[in-house]
Amino acid sequence: MPLSHITIQHSKPRDKPFKLADGDGLFLVIQPNGSRLWRYRYRFHGIERSLSIGPFPKVTIAEARARREQAKEQIANGVDPSVQKRLDRIASGMAARNTFGLIADEYIERLEANGASASTLKKNRWYRDILARPIKSRPIADITPAEILDLLQRIERSGRRESAHRMRGFIGAVFRLAIVTLRATTDPSYALGGALLRPITKPRAAITDEKRFGGLLRAIDTFDGYPTIRAALQFCALTFARPGEVRLAQRSEIDFDKTVWRIPAERTKMRRQHEVPLARQAVEVLREMWPVSELGDYIFPSVRTYQRPLSDATFNAALRRMGFAKDEMSAHGFRATASTILNERGFPPDVIEAALGHQDENSIRRAYNRAAYWPERVELMQKWADMLDEFRRLPAG
């Protein structure tokens, strides 16, 4: 006769465990301590087996019967319920260990092993630890598109649209790693690009008027702060390299005989070596810094130690001290200044782009540009340096 709730409740514990049968292989074991556990007895390939279903009353009579029917269906399909339960438990444990945060750790470790820059690693750790905090401890296979969209839209609502887009890219990269390592089957961030608002891009501040730029150059030349900062800003203006590339420039990268600065791939935005022809004025700046930097590797060492470069805030702080507001000129603005003035003066755009180290999307064209434009770039850099001397002599206006 099938069990009822009243029957179970009135069955008192005994000195030894005993069973209450519900029928069709399902029974309840009552222990001397009063605990009650559902079990299901069945035969699989002629061998008698037993499946633990769960404790009563947490597992009700109706739930225990439903699980018995599920087990019977598995047996009919050639699946041993006990083995399947163990496999499900293992899979669940593995899923719990394969969290988004742990796979994000692996992704960042791979970036580091592949030579990613310190700033790239720092940014990705920030994505992982701060922006991805709501999903960091979640099993990656359980994360849904709705969860990711909610996370991205919260970032977006805070006014950081570009961060939301970059965060989506980071999440997608982590999921792609999970997919190729068989810990996820899909990337739920893939279809969310259209759900985000476009980033509001704000160009970096730059002086593009030749007379005003001449005033900036004069201010740099007479800067009364740390001499290394003055020299580094002069080098930024002459080479229009990225500020980070200048700050981290090392003595071993300079070839005085060929007058070239070879920036290694790991320090460039495009992750390929970029060679900068050095004009006579740029060489003079380096010659001035050479005895100053000989105790360390960096050409423009920190104020505090020769073993570290200038900090990333140094250039902009010096510009503010010279009286140039943040919406007027920035350290990165030297690139925009050079690009604007050189284009206005009629220099070939492809040569300017090659000098800026921009990546051409066409790989064949990119390889051609690197080889074919070198003489033009050498000429361009010397003409640019001469133009800077010309700008210095222009009357203030």
Give an account of the 3D structure.
By secondary structure, this protein is an alpha+beta fold. The chain has 3 domains: 5-88, Integrase, DNA-binding domain (Double Stranded RNA Binding Domain, 2-Layer Sandwich), CATH 3.30.160; 100-195, DNA polymerase, domain 1 (Orthogonal Bundle), CATH 1.10.150.130; 210-393, Orthogonal Bundle (hpI Integrase, Chain A). 51% of the residues lie in helices and 10% in strands. The protein has helices at 5-9, 61-76, 81-97, 100-113, 118-131, 145-157, 161-180, 210-221, 227-239, 243-247, 280-293, 314-321, 333-344, 349-356, 363-372, 374-393, and strands at residues 18-23, 26-30, 36-44, 47-56, 254-255, 260-263, 274-277. The strands form 2 sheets. It has a 4-stranded antiparallel β-sheet with strand order 1-2-3-4, with helices on one face. Strands 5-6-7 form a 3-stranded antiparallel β-sheet. Helix 8 crosses helix 16 (374-393).
Structural class: alpha+beta
Helix percent band: 40-55%
Major β-sheet, in short? 4 strands, antiparallel
List the domain count as a whole number: 3
Would you summarize the structure shown here?
The protein has 16 helices and seven strands.
Please describe the topology of this protein:
Blueprint: H1 5-9, E1 18-23, E2 26-30, E3 36-44, E4 47-56, H2 61-76, H3 81-97, H4 100-113, H5 118-131, H6 145-157, H7 161-180, H8 210-221, H9 227-239, H10 243-247, E5 254-255, E6 260-263, E7 274-277, H11 280-293, H12 314-321, H13 333-344, H14 349-356, H15 363-372, H16 374-393
Antiparallel strand pairs: 1-2, 2-3, 3-4, 5-6, 6-7
